[in-house]
Amino acid sequence: MPLVDERGVGLILFGLVCTVLVAGAVVIGVHFLMPKKLVERYWKQPHFGPFQLAVFTGTIWAPLRTVMLLAAIAFPAIARKRGMTEMREVVPAWCRWVAKLLGTIWVITSAGLVLATATLLAHFQASGRIALWPGQDGARVDWDLAIAIAVLLAGAGFLLVRHVISRGARGGRHDSAVTHQSRPGSPPKPSADSRSKVPPGDGERAK
To answer: Residue 186: pLDDT above 60?
Structure first.
């Protein structure tokens, strides 16, 4: 009896792909219903780069603009990174609900596709139906599939390293700002209460 039910895993993959297609259709519908004020306020620099603004505005890739805005609504970390912390407060309730729903679907389907694909590849490798690396039996390596998987892993690793470096750079800038404020020679920042108080001598002279 095989350890992996190929039919079951195949049905899971088919269901995940259908879910992605349905979510894509929803995104296209939301693209035409996205509030105009929201787009005008946040779809510009410095929240997004010039390349993104040029490619995802007025082209066939325009629905990806909606994906990026919905991601910022669904995940507060993305909104903070792009300087859009007040975004969730200005969007309508239905937009927040759709963003949370699509964000949840994106996380579940992404994890499911990765796990199901890895399970099938490991099963096919163990059963000898594919060869991702040279084995003892001298089977011919499927270089096209092996290279495609290596490229995907390299891309995922690049994105992970870039995310870690960007977080470290932001943390370094924050620490340097805190160190400068706490330096003995740096003048203290006046508080609102101290600015509002008038010295007694100045008040007497004004009288």
So the answer is: no
